[in-house]
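Recall the central idea of this unit: under ordinary conditions, the amino acid sequence of a chain determines the structure it adopts. In this exercise we apply that idea directly, starting from the sequence alone.
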Amino acid sequence: MDAATITTPAVLILLGPPGAGKGTQARMLEEKFGLVQLSTGDLLREAVAAGTDAGKAAKAVMEAGDLVSDEIVIAILRDRMAQPDCAKGVILDGFPRTTVQAEALDNLLASNNQKINAAISLEVEDAEMVTRISGRYTCAGCGEGYHDQFKKPAEEGKCDKCGHTEFKRRADDNAETVASRLAAYHAQTAPLIAYYDGQGVLQRTNAMGRIEDIANDLEGIVGEVMN
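Accordingly, the structure predicted from this sequence is:
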C-alpha cells in the first residue's frame, strides 16, 4: 500500500540523543514517503516570522527571556500540521520531550482524528557517542568534516577538499559536555520510552551502524506502520 492511500496523515516521532542522526534520517524519510520533518526550533522561528497569533505569543515570551510554554508550542504545531504540505504526514524531531507534552500532543491529534503511528527510538551506545562527537572537527575554509579517529585528512593538517590548513571544533564537542548531554537526554527520555511502549507504538532501531543500514531499518518500520 502506498503512503498516499492513508486516510489520515501519519505522525512519526524520532527519539534519540544529539549526534544520533535524527536529522539525517528524517530527511531521508521525507524523500521516501513524502512526509514533512517538524522540529521545535524551526517551528518557532517560522511562526514568529509569519506573525501568526501563536507566533506573536512565542515572540513576546522569547523576548522576555522566558521559555515558550507547552500550550504555545502545541498551538504552533497545530497550525503547521494543518498546512497542505503535511497531507501525507509529519516526522516530529525534538518534540515531545516530556510525558506532559506527549499527553498534550495526544489530545491535539485526537481532535484531528489522528494518532501516533510510531515513536522510533534511535538506540546508541553512550561511550561510542562520546568518541564519535568529541572527535569531530571541520575545515575552517570549506566546512568539510573530519574526525580524529574515523576520518583524518589524507595529508595531515591539510583539507582534502580545498587544501586549507586551518581547522575548527565546536566548543561543545568535547567529551565532558557530550557525556553531560547524553545523561540529560536519557533522564528526560526514559519516561517517554515507557509512555510510548505502553501505547504499543514504540519501535527501536540500532543507530550505531552505517547511515544506509539505519535508513533501511527505518524505511522498513515506517513502511509497515503506514500500511
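The beta strands are 10-15, 36-39, 89-93, 118-123, 136-139, 145-147, 167-168, 202-206.
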